[in-house]
Write a structure and sequence with these properties.
The chain is an alpha+beta fold. The chain folds into two domains: 116 residues; 208 residues, Double Stranded RNA Binding Domain, CATH 3.30.160.20. It is built from eleven helices and eleven strands. Strands 2-3-1-5-4-9-10-11 form an eight-stranded mixed β-sheet. Strands 6-7-8 form a three-stranded antiparallel β-sheet, covered by helices on one side. It is flat and about 70 Å long. It starts with 10 loop residues before the first helix and ends in a 9-residue tail after the last helix.
Length: 363
């Protein structure tokens, strides 16, 4: 289902959109119940210094969520006052200037509301971690390899958008693969839904081709999720190819690690062996952390979860009748301009945010 563009709405429509968003927050988060539970826990925690870690953590989480809701409700009230003032304003020039500001405020409210609902629903150990994302293709086509860079740049624009202001750092890259870190609170929770196969249909030599990019999203972790002995990980120094030139390729700067028990393997090839080793262990720990999380979630995932979908996550058709379609949210954008906005503008955000807490049909 196509999203309703806020730019297409008059002030009265913007008020309805804002009301819909706040109604969804109120529907999903029971403020009164949260307050009652917090007060119960508050008496326990404040009256007993030896309160258990689980109780203290629930108390802390509820305290944060209630404060965030109060801030969100205050923001809603503030925007609503501005919308109502615009509705009463007879000066057309004033209204023309006010509407773009209101739209920016509503979009910011959407982001805050989505993050809030995601926070109240999430229970993952690594939800607040940074994210490590690897985009990889096995195709040899220069066009396919250029998609790796285009998609990485699209994620960079999403991460560094002023409304999020996440950090973005390329950790490793080659012609067929790029690995980067998105840093900021809840980065992993926000981007976890991007994990999967992304299909590209394009034209080369007047013939249609289909290729895939594998996008892997792991929680950033510099420590193993459980105790590892030295013999649990096999380390190999290999020669390889990278942008470091002959020195990097001849000095066995490529490090391959294999976790013996699970068979999990990572391979990193940077300009120095020490950098490759450090990054390789970070990637291995991050993969093991995700595996541990998935094991713990077995039996609790809904039919709409990523692992239950099969096939591709998102399809990009970049030839005649261009479109991008997301298999989870069923969001589809069509036309060359809209498709280019996904890959070269800020259009990727609508697909990522559709996997988050808010389900309201606005963009």
């Amino acid at each position: 289902m196509a999203k309703v563009m806020l730019e297409d709405l008059a002030p009265a429509g913007l008020r309805d959109a804002l009301d819909d968003l706040m109604a969804e927050v109120d529907s999903d988060f029971d403020y009164s119940q949260a307050q009652e539970r917090f007060q119960e826990l508050d008496q326990i925690v404040m009256g007993d210094s030896s309160a258990g870690r689980k109780t203290t953590k629930e108390w802390s989480n509820l305290n944060r969520q209630i404060a965030t809701y109060d801030s969100l409700k205050g923001y809603y009230d503030s925007i609503l006052v501005d919308i109502n003032a615009t509705l009463k304003e007879a000066d057309a020039e004033y209204v023309e200037v006010a509407i773009p500001i209101l739209i920016d405020d509503i979009r910011d409210f959407m982001t805050r509301a989505s993050n809030f609902l995601d926070d109240t629903k999430s229970k993952g150990k690594y939800d607040h971690n940074d994210a490590i994302i690897t985009i990889q293709t096995i195709g040899n086509s220069a066009i396919t390899q250029s998609f790796v860079i285009q998609l990485a740049e699209a994620y960079k624009r999403f991460a560094t958008d002023p409304s999020r202001n996440y950090g973005f750092e390329i950790l490793d890259h080659s012609n067929k693969e790029v690995t980067f870190r998105v840093s900021g609170d809840r980065a992993y929770s926000l981007l976890r839904g991007e994990d999967g196969v992304h299909s590209f249909v394009f034209e080369e030599g007047k013939r249609p081709y289909t290729d895939t990019l594998n996008v892997t999203v792991n929680p950033y972790s510099e420590r193993a999720p459980y105790k590892l002995r030295k013999r649990d990980v096999r380390e190999e120094a290999l020669s390889g190819s990278t942008n470091g030139g002959a020195n990097a390729n001849c000095n066995h700067n490529c490090i391959r690690l294999t976790h013996e028990e699970t068979g999990t393997q990572v391979r990193v090839n940077t300009r120095s062996q020490s950098d490759s080793r450090r990054l390789a262990y970070t990637l291995l720990y991050s993969k093991l952390a995700k595996q541990q999380e998935e094991e713990q979630r077995k039996g609790t995932e809904s039919s709409g979860d990523l692992k239950a979908r099969g096939g591709y996550l998102r399809k990009y058709r970049l030839m005649h009748r261009e479109y991008v379609i997301d298999k989870v949210s069923n969001i589809k954008v069509e036309g060359r301009e809209q498709v280019l906005n996904v890959l070269q503008g800020n259009g990727l955000a609508q697909f990522i945010m559709a996997h988050q807490g808010l389900k309201a049909n606005y963009q």
